[in-house]
Sequence to fold (672 residues):
Amino acid sequence: MTVKIGILSFAHMHAYSYAACLKQIPSVKLVGLADDDPERGQETARRFGTRFFASAGALLGEKLDGVIICAENVKHRPLTELAAPRTPHILCEKPIATTMADAQVMIDVCAAHGTRLQIAFPVRFSPPVQRLKTILDEGTLGRIYSVKTTNHGRMPGGWFVDKALAGGGAVMDHTVHVIDLLRWFWNTEVTEVYAEVGYSLLHPGLGIDDVGMLSFRLATGAYGTLDASWSRPDCHPTWGDVKLEVLGERGIARVDAFSQNLAVYSDRTGKAQWVHWGSNTDLGLIRDFVDMIATGREPFITGYDGLKALEVALAAYLSAERGEPVALPLEREGGA
Amino acid sequence: MRHIGIIGAGLIGGMHAERWAQLPVELAGFYDVSSEAAAKAVGKFGGRAFPSLETLLAEVEVVGVCAPTPAHKDLVLAAAAAGKDVVCEKPMARHLRDAEEMVAACETAGMRLFVAHVVRFFPEYAHAKEVLDSGQLGRPGVIRTVRGGNFPAPDTQNWYTDFEQSGGVIMDMLIHDIDYARWCFGDVSRVFARGLTFSDVQGADHVLLTMRFQNGAIGHLEGSWAYPPGNFRTRLEIAGDEGLLEVDSLDTLPLSVTLKQEKATLAAGIPVPESPMHPTDDPYYREIAHFLACLESGDDFLVSPRDGLEALRIALAAIESLRTGQPVDVATFEEE
Fold:
């Protein structure tokens, strides 16, 4: 069977990678893309040999098997509300939304229409990370004491630093990947978050948080930290990192998910660069989404997973505001 | 020529003696509450074993305080009263009040007190400070450090494993990086720590400390006595608004020897890495040589008694945070 997929918005740069992944899967037809920016949309459609649709509604009229939403964070909700009645499968870029209320509406509207909602947490498809999960599942480290993590990045700019569109800066952008991994590893939840959040600390005049240092406790009893900062300069040889160190009674396991790199030094580009030769995690994510559509199974990463990861990022902001640890789950306020 | 007396003939006392032997001074000898330990050190490093603190003080101009932390105060007070200059191991005391008395006693007696925060003398840390000060990294924003090894062996150094005496991994290990971070980024406004110190875990100690500096910068310091043996590691990362600096002992090992597992020794099959340095670049040599040079020139020490006291205050505030689960304001922190 041919799996017909459309992409709603290329505002998030991951859309380009997802489109390239779709083109690599023979059973997939990339039916088209819609974008608020017609110039970007037309150019991207040409690049991937597909059709440009002037509106999301028009693309959703094409009897798609699934859509991938890569709009700005705040637009995830309206696009999901638009797509849920018209397509049976949605893959939504992370974070799921910018508020708990929006995330819940997305989950509810998909449930009401029998649409399967998956959240894009590609790091679950990193083979080094998957190997760590196996090691943890086998109990190799014994009782787990702590997990120290980083998800560093360069400052992405654009709408990522516009609170009205992104919902927050580095903490919103870089908390959810690692928190999702930890929830997945141990089938657990974060129960408490303390955070030091820095605004314009590494980028004068940025006007949004660019440093986030989260200290948390898991329901397993383990404690941990996550550095979610945009602390890699523009000249850094790669975009950033996802690193995890799990300390247990029998030893320590360290994973650097994106360390399978070539070091390339070029006088032509004037730069040192790391070229990743490890497995493409985005391809793993897209294959999984297509497999879900083809087999009719439930999503591997659910809307609820997206919501619980978002909750930790929101709790971090709350903790920084209050200057004290915040207990989870957060109390849900109507319309918050 | 100055005569040097070392109090405390354990591991660190021997390390001091080895470095003094390379300098134009006379090692008078050792005093230790264990006359056996003193005799053993004399056999190895020369000088003579003094039967009492008083007899040692009567024959030297300079005292090295290398006894367990709780003994520091009385030894420094006695040395100051006897008109001796002192190099005192870190942490300078177990409690703030003790450290304040020590600083006051040396000031009153007009004697010089150098707190041996040796990390400032490690070539990679010293160079990192130079890079930071050169402005290449821009305005400092985030500092991350790691200092970790295995739990101290209970047979030889059991005072380390007694929290009341040593203050655990925060006071013995993390204080190195606390001092270094404060040297780089200035005074600390608050700390928040999670760790194993007050948990039910026996035979391991581990802390993840987040800190906020008065200039708004953020720190993340890991101290571990929980790694498997043979895995000592240090790491430093400083991010500024114009650059990033990283150094990791795991990545900077110019020499590694791996033996076939012919004999069933602990080291067999495990690479034994080394980072060889010229003897005059050895951090303990540089520290002791700096102390001597400042005694001769009258210049200020790189580490002032106030620096030693402030590092202790931050360490104790971190312990308080571990105990209470709350962030602790360093400036208003008072030890109970």
The first strand of chain A starts at residue 3 and ends at 8. Chain A has eleven helices and 15 strands.
